Amino acid sequence: MPLRFQTSRATPDTADALVVGVFADDLSSKALPDPLESGFLSAQGFTAALGEVATVRSSDDGKPSTVVAVGLGSKDTATAATYRRAGAALAQANSHRKRVATTLLADVPEDLDHAEAARALAEGVVLASYRFTAYKSDPKPVALERVVVVDEGGRTTTAALTTGQAVADAVCVARDLVNEPGGSLTPSVFAERAVNLGREHEFAVRVRDERAIKRARLGGLLGVNRGSTEPARFVELSWSPVRPKATVALVGKGITFDSGGLSLKTTEGMKTMKGDMGGAAAVLATFCALAAVRPQVKVLGYLPLTDNMPGGDATRVGDVLRIRNGTTVEVLNTDAEGRLVLADALVMAADARPTAIVDIATLTGAAKVALGDKMAALMGNDDELITQVRAAADAAGEMVWHLPLPEYLRPKLDSEVADLKNVGGRDGGALVAGLFLKEFVPAGMPWVHLDIAGPAESSENDGELRKGGTGFGVRTLVNLLESFGA
């Protein structure tokens, strides 16, 4: 049964448990709501650190007999992320219960927008409740079905919870796509899912097959696809309000499985390569949230979809591909394929003359080496757009770090036989990849590149994250579109 949120002015008697938020400041001052008692919590080692949980049995007649205390950390440092983490703790502590009530929004600090806290709370609950069970013979989904938020906010709180759930549900769409095996989620299957999701969430979808891809002169996509028996697809998405203030194009890398091509990866290197379409998944999932958040901008999406296989006619090292805008690229490493399909997609996006372009891709291991597995690399050609994306990521609770695109590295891409080569050596690998993509964005058109090779997947259950695909980037893109041009 789908998870549902509702609001109430009083704690319902039918709840299986009551979840209460505790700030560390209140624990030390002993100013705790009934039936919590600071001495008992302290004896359990509870310090009210963010996300920490303690369970208390209550003897109150007519009220839930189980009370779960969730730490909120210091009140002075509380942000929307505090309530997202608290929502995740609620879901984890009550995964075996069907109905819970919570007063987590009862004491939101005055300097924090109450609706933002409510939206983040819903996001945390939904994201931490996520499970990928499609291939489990005996799936064990989370039992939680209903969360009653005890709050005086009325319609405002209800609307915020609804929006938060819609955004988190979209993130889960991306997670499902990333977690799906590459042999099941082929380019054509991905495209079919996009069509179905478009019908469900009210956005337009156009799918280009092989013939249409050839007519569109998408030489990078065709070159990467040469070693595969699965035909490529190019998916275009569109959503618009009645009077859009601007147009934002989103481009997502969609390599449904990356073997490395003839520059073959090791078995260890291939283990997570079913998720090499995390950028395309994030873009498609973002569109699934647009009808709920209704940004005042037109949104276009471009998803080049193929796997990268070492078939008998695979692109050879040294082959030259021609991108849609006529630029020729010497392929010196077939495992640097993502930038080839993105080049075509960036040209397609630019042809629509949007106000700005944002691409998102699991592009380089170098970005993960530099920033670890929880932070995305942020690059671009426009300081204002970079600032907007970084602010959107901060508000979403997704970590990004701005890296430069230094011109002194640009000569690494010079080729003796073509306009460009697709690799430039090990030094500054993430930056060189960004410089390659920059070549396919017209001068003067604001563009940002997000390399999510690190945070697209998680190796552990941590807060709202679950092992496997994270859906990283969806919340950032949604926030960017909501605030764009404001």
Q: How does the SSE layout of this entry go?
A:
Elements: E1 4-8, E2 17-22, H1 24-29, H2 38-43, E3 53-57, E4 66-71, H3 80-93, E5 99-102, H4 114-128, E6 146-150, H5 155-179, H6 187-201, E7 204-208, H7 210-215, H8 219-225, E8 233-239, E9 247-252, E10 254-258, H9 267-270, H10 278-293, E11 298-308, E12 320-322, E13 328-330, H11 338-351, E14 356-361, H12 365-371, E15 375-380, H13 383-396, E16 399-402, E17 420-421, H14 429-438, E18 447-451, E19 457-458, E20 468-469, H15 474-483
Parallel strand pairs: 1-6, 2-4, 2-5, 5-6, 9-11, 9-14, 10-11, 13-17, 14-18, 15-16
Antiparallel strand pairs: 3-4, 7-8, 8-11, 12-13, 15-18, 19-20
Helix pairs in contact: 3-4, 4-5, 5-10, 6-10, 8-11, 10-15, 13-15
Low-pLDDT regions: none
Q: What Rg do the Cα atoms give? A: 24 Å
CATH architecture of the largest domain: 3-Layer(aba) Sandwich
Strand proportion, as a percent range, falls in 15-25%
Report the CATH topology name of the largest domain: Aminopeptidase
Instruction: Supply the number of structural domains.
Output: 2
Number of helices: 15
CATH structural class of the largest domain:
Alpha Beta
**What's the CATH H-level superfamily name of the largest domain?**
Zn peptidases
Distance between the termini: 38 Å
Globally, the shape reads elongated
